[in-house]
């Protein structure tokens, strides 16, 4: 199963689960007008194929992670993949992506405190071969954090999918 193979039923199921990952299969089946077994099979296929994951999302500060930042990383030519592989292994890293523009990579980092963050930068990130320089953007306040995109609009009360 790949992106081009997602049919309307898959998209409807995903849409519902993006707003409530714990929604019972029976409730989903009722909303999309199929059997519970069909929903269960489709969800399992989406998960097994790596298209979808269902996870619990916790605000980092409640777990004691008080220093959050986005770090722009410039990398030596030809070393982006190897640097990204090393960065992805660091436990403080929650999100990592390649970008165009001033930086080659952007890294979202959560550390216990500023001391831990300084140690992360100097003892780990800057020690990775191929990292040329970084620029840190401390996250002061989060206005929105969402894992909903694409067709995942909020279903209206009584809306048929």
What would you note in describing this structure?
The chain has 161 residues and is an alpha+beta fold. α2 packs across α3. It contains five helices and four strands, in the order αααβαββαβ. The protein has helices spanning 8-19, 25-32, 36-48, 80-88, 114-124; strands at residues 67-75, 93-98, 105-111, 131-138. 33% of the residues lie in helices and 19% in strands. The protein has a four-stranded antiparallel β-sheet with strand order 2-3-1-4.
Main sheet: strand order: 2-3-1-4
Question: Termini separation (Å)?
Answer: 22 Å
The average pLDDT score comes to 87
> How would you describe the shape?
elongated
Number of strands: 4
Order of helices and strands: HHHEHEEHE
Helix content: 25-40%
Radius of gyration over alpha carbons? 20 Å
User: What oligomeric assembly is this protein in?
Assistant: single chain
Strand content: 15-25%
Total DSSP helices: 5
Describe the sheet with the most strands: 4 strands, antiparallel
The parts where pLDDT drops under 50 for at least 5 residues are none
Which structural category fits the helices and strands? alpha+beta
């Amino acid at each position: 199963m790949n992106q081009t193979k997602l049919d309307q039923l898959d998209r409807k199921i995903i849409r519902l689960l993006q707003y409530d990952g714990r929604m019972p299969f029976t409730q989903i089946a009722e909303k999309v007008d199929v059997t519970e077994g069909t929903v269960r099979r489709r969800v399992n296929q989406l998960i097994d194929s790596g298209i979808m994951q269902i996870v619990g999302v916790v605000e980092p500060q409640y777990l004691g992670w008080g220093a959050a930042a986005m770090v722009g990383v410039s990398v030596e030519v030809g070393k982006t993949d190897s640097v990204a592989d090393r960065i992805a292994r660091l436990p403080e890293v929650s999100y990592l992506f390649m970008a165009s523009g001033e930086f080659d990579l952007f890294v979202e980092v959560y550390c216990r405190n500023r001391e831990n963050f300084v140690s992360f930068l100097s003892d780990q990130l800057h020690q990775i071969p191929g990292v040329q320089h970084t620029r840190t953007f401390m996250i002061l306040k989060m206005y929105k954090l969402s894992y909903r995109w694409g067709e995942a609009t909020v279903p209206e009360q009584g809306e048929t999918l």
